[in-house]
Amino acid sequence: MALYEHIFLARQDVTAQQVETMTEQFKGVIEANGGKVAKIEYWGVKSLAYRIKKNRKAHFSLLNIDAPSAAVAEMERLQSINEDVLRVMTIRVEEHEEGPSAMMRKRDDADRDERGGDRGDRRGPGGRGDSGRAPRPRRDEFSNEGGF
């Protein structure tokens, strides 16, 4: 059997519970056709780079699949019929990634930064957010001696 990474995008209107139910249905299709799902990750609602079927956001889900190609083709066929699924992408891989995916690690890093990670003082050398340059003269400091 071959190894696949499969990602599908569901409409933003559906709830996370409905996305989980859809994921379980797709997992059942894979298992009924002689395969198995090694890992399921729900990445949450994310903004899309461009509109897809009038949607600006979507629920993202990842499935790591170990199954024959016929099982994956059947799952993709069912997803194309489902009106809540916006896009699917399946990639054949040599081996599955161990541990959390890059998207989950990115989320963990973002959570860590929000909790007060030391990011240092971001203000410039002057301490007021400026770049350390000399202050610009005010309008009334210009002389009008040039005859303008």
Instruction: Tell me the CATH topology of the domain at 2-96.
Output: Alpha-Beta Plaits
Mean of all residue-level pLDDT scores: 83
Helical content stands at 25-40%
Radius of gyration: 26 Å
Which regions are unreliable across 5 or more consecutive residues at pLDDT < 50? Answer: none
The CATH architecture name of the domain at 2-96 reads: 2-Layer Sandwich
Sheet with the most strands: spatial strand order: 2-3-1-4
By helix and strand content, what is the structural category?
alpha+beta
The CATH class name of the domain at 2-96 reads Alpha Beta
Distance between the termini: 83 Å
- In CATH, what is the homologous superfamily of the domain at 2-96? Ribosomal protein S6/Translation elongation factor EF1B
How many DSSP helices?
3
Major beta sheet summary: 4 strands, antiparallel
Q: Name the shape in a single word.
A: elongated
List the secondary-structure elements in sequence, H or E: EHEEHEH
Strand content: 25-35%
The count of DSSP E runs of length 2 or more, i.e. the number of strands, is 4
